[in-house]
Amino acid sequence: MPAAADIERARERLAGVARVTPVYRSETISRLAGRDVHLKAENLQRTGSFKIRGAVNKLSTLGKAQRAAGVVAASAGNHAQAVAWAAREAGVGATIFVPQDAAMAKVEATKGYGAEVRMVGQGIEEALAEARKLSEETGAGFVHPFEDETVVAGQGTIGLELAEQVTAETVLVPIGGGGLAAGIGLALRASAPRTKVVGIRAARDAFALADGIAVKEPGELTGPLLEEVLDDVVEVSPDGIAQAIVLLLERTKLLVEGAGAVGIAALLAGKIAGDGPVAVVLSGGNIDASTLIEVVRYGVTTAGRHLVVRTSVPDRPGELLKLLQLVAEERVNVLSVEHRREGVDIPVGATGIDLTLLTRDEAHCEALLDQMRGWGYEVERLR
Ligand SMILES: Cc1ncc(COP(=O)(O)O)c(C=O)c1O
Fold it and tell me: 286 and 172, same structural domain?
């Protein structure tokens, strides 16, 4: 088990290499959660996630022969980027095995840091097996994403920073393989023993959105460590994660990937006990632009901010304009207007209209529907 001294040593090795990331208090999220909420912005870490802490620490312990043979790793994304970056900084070659369905932004960034990327198989297990094989064949240093005491100690440096940056009743940490939570838990046990540590998992149907923490189970090293250092483990849904990403973007201007936003999702779902200050580790910010578009659309819709309503107007020039003018007077944005003449139950002499409107929240949707009825339109809510 990594000792507090190992985490302290990791911190010395990381000085000037990894950023000491800032902690921000969010007024809006504190109000929503009914308690002080502080955000540890590891999404602003070099390479966009906390992973360089473990990777840099591990690389600094490799012997001459291993460094000459290079390093090898397997990852679906953030660890890949981190090892590639740490290897480049250390002047060591890196080969990274990546599952074929990994996020493209992460794969491109890994190549951009100069690593050789080999795409293999569908899941992380196959990539890990290939990486191990290459390490055995060539003597290259193998950097496991979490089953490694040196990697866990590196991730633990976040806990040391947190203990100095904020006094928290509870710290929320995402769990994939468990290296991050184990490291932070060990560090806090030594430096802030009264602080509770809660691990946050993504539900299985949220794996696509939270690819950083998908599929992985804690391992033989991290499993027992988590048992020891965590006070609780909770699970969050895809809706909650999408809403958390949108909230963080809108209100704190922080771009956070799904795996990094699970703490906020858990907090806002009322899953975290207590009422004292909470520190939430935003563990990464690497999200594909295409995923971000989907998430924003999904987050906005599930937050009740898209109202889709079906109505009909007399089939005469000016009637659609009249309806749109009434909507405009309510200062509501129209996202789309569709005419429906076929396949819907519309009386002769009328035209069906589907409107998608941008609203403030669920209460605003309801008020608007009442308003439209008041203007004399029959309305059916589609979403
Ligand atoms: C953004 C992000 N958060 C959290 C984690 C979970 O870290 P661990 O696998 O050490 O539990 C990962 C792992 O890849 C990640 O990429």
Answer: yes
Chain CA centroid to CA 194, Å: 27
β partners of residue 381: 309
Final residue in a domain of this structure, among 84, 111, 142: 142
CA of 212 to the centre of ligand 1 (A): 5
- Structural domain count of the chain: 3
Q: Are residues 41 and 156 in the same domain?
A: yes
Q: Verify that 33 and 181 share a domain, yes or no.
A: yes
Where b means 16+ CB within 10 Å and e means fewer, 64-87 reads: eebbebbbbbbbbbbbbbbbbbbb
Are residues 331 and 219 part of one domain? no
Pair (214, 281) in one structural domain: yes
Segments forming the whole domain that contains residue 373? 304-381
Our mutation pick for probing the ligand 1 site, out of 46, 49, 83, 147, counting the most ligand atoms within 8 A of Cβ, is 49
- Residue 310 sits in the same domain as residue 223: no
If you take atom 6 of ligand 1, which residue's CA is the nearest one? Answer: 176
Regarding whether 323 and 229 lie in a shared domain, the answer is: no
Which atom of ligand 1 is the closest one to the Cα of 155? 10
Pocket of ligand 1 (CB under 6 A): 49, 78-79, 145-146, 174-181, 212-213, 216, 257, 259-260, 283-284
Phi, psi at 68, each rounded to 5°: -65, -35
Please report, in tens digits, the pLDDT of each residue of the chain (383 residues total).
Answer: 889 999 999 999 999 999 999 999 999 999 999 999 999 999 999 999 999 999 999 999 998 888 899 999 999 889 999 999 999 999 999 999 999 988 888 899 999 999 999 999 888 889 999 999 999 999 999 999 999 999 999 999 999 999 999 999 999 999 999 999 999 999 999 999 999 999 999 988 887 888 878 766 889 999 999 999 999 999 999 989 999 999 999 999 999 999 999 999 999 999 999 999 999 999 999 998 999 999 988 877 777 788 999 999 998 899 999 999 999 998 999 999 998 877 667 778 889 999 999 988 888 899 999 999 999 999 999 98
Q: Just list the catalytic residues.
A: 51, 283
Contact partners, residue 335, CB within 8 Å, separation at least 6:
306, 356, 357, 358
Atom 10 of ligand 1, nearest CA residue:
179
